[in-house]
Amino acid sequence: MTRKKIKKKMEKKESPGLLAKKEKVASLSKVSGKYPVVALLNIRNLPDRILQSSKKKLRGQAEFTVAKNSVIKRALDKTGKSSLSGHMDFPTALVFTSMTPYSLYTFFKKNKVKVAAKPGQIAPFDIIVHEGETDLVPGPALSELKGAGINAQIKAGKIIIAKDSTVSKSGAKITDNVCKALQKLNILPFEAMVHMVAAYDGKFTYTASALDLDEAQLHDGLLASLSQSFNVSFNASFPTSQNISALLSSAFSQGRNMAINGHVYSDASTELLLAQAVLLGSSFSEKVGSLDSKPAAAADASTAAAQAENAAETPKT
User: Fold this and answer.
1) Band of pLDDT at residue 99, cut at 50, 70 and 90
2) Secondary structure of the chain: what % helix, strand, coil (to 5)?
3) Could you give the CA distance from residue 192 to residue 59 in angstroms, rounded to a whole number?
4) CA-derived radius of gyration, the chain
5) CA separation for the pair 28, 315 (Å, rounded)
6) Residue 199 burial (CB < 10 Å; 0-12/13-18/19+)?
7) 32/26 Cα distance (integer angstroms)
8) Side-chain-facing half-sphere of 306: CA atoms under 13 Å
9) Contacts from 53-56 at CB under 8 Å and sequence distance 24+?
10) Is residue 97 within 8 Å of residue 107, measured between CB atoms?
């Protein structure tokens, strides 16, 4: 059997499923080449309406693709993004985008949706029905609420919650009765969001823990770092675009002070030195008198002395 016949025989044996996988890998590889960033989404237990809502809001900025993990891994390996493959321990969707990994993660974080509790779901925290009035009228609803462990009573023709009631403890399975009671009260205890697990931007792989930043805390931290670095560079006299004005101002001030203290005349010190001399002269004048009045005073003293001398020489009659 020739090689050509062997090759044709092998091609015929490829199943439609295998061909579909190859086409999907090729399609994902092509889309990946259009965008600098690719992100992995964990879509386990994610309501489809939330994923569809994100697709709609990011239309024109990102493309979403859901496929089997084996297909996604092949596409990632083929496009040089295999560093993401190690983060796929769940049903996965891909997002191809021009947004930065942080911007994409922040978008998903800000677009959380309130969702109802499901029977059998593990409560991540204590679920509490708070005291207050309801819009429910007395009837079967009262029994349903009490069956869920809610302290419900009738008051003024309506059902009220007499006091805060914990219907499910943290770590416990949520019962069917609790779910029905919460739905009756229109309480959506949980928040759901698209969970972005990791992203690759062509250079680095960013995990969710690295992208989950508090913007206010980050802003304050950056301001503190900027202030500290400015102080270090200024005190070390290391010029930068941020401190050059302050360094030049400090150098000018120090040079002028040195010229004034050393009585060195320059464009910066002459005016101050002359002003200093005028103030010093005024101070001396106040203590010893004006220099202009000295000749007149001396003349008056000479005249008085001469008159006294003449009076002494004139004989008395």
Assistant:
1) very high
2) 50, 15, 30
3) 21
4) 44
5) 140
6) buried
7) 10
8) 6
9) 53/111, 53/113, 54/107, 54/108, 54/111, 54/194
10) no
Residue 7 above 50 pLDDT?
yes
Question: Is residue 14 very low, low, confident or very high in pLDDT (cuts 50, 70, 90)?
Answer: low
Tokens encoding 13: 């044996």
Q: Give the pairing of strands 190-192 and 132-133.
A: unpaired
Packed helices 101-110 and 48-57: angle between N→C axes, nearest 10 degrees: 130
3-state secondary structure 234-249: HHCCCCCCCCHHHHHH
- Sole residue written with tokens 């996604």: 72
Whether the per-residue pLDDT at 41 is higher than 90: the answer is: yes
Q: State what percent of residues in the chain have pLDDT above 70.
A: 86
Is a pLDDT exceeding 80 seen at residue 202? Answer: yes
Could you give the residue ranges of the DSSP H alpha helices within 173-293?
176-184, 208-211, 215-235, 244-261, 270-288
pLDDT digits (tens, 9 = 90+) for 128-169: 999 999 888 888 888 899 999 999 999 888 899 999 999 999
Domains in the chain with CATH codes? 16-112+193-213 (3.30.70.1730), 127-189 (3.90.105.20), 231-291 (no CATH)
Tokens of 254: 């120090």
Residues in the chain: 317
Q: What is the mean pLDDT of residues 104-119?
A: 90
Residue 8 has pLDDT above 70, yes or no: no
Cα separation of 239 and 244, whole Å?
5
Residue at token pair 């002359």: 274
What token pair was written down for 114? 């309130």
Output 157-166 pairs: Cβ under 8 A, ≥24 positions apart: 158/133, 158/134, 159/134, 160/132, 160/133, 160/134, 161/129, 161/130, 161/131, 161/132, 161/133, 161/134, 162/131, 163/131, 164/128, 164/129, 164/130, 164/131, 165/128, 165/129, 166/126, 166/127, 166/128
Say how far apart CA 13 and CA 28 lie, in whole Å. Answer: 24
In angstroms, the first-to-last Cα distance of the chain is 175
- pTM over 0.85? The answer is no
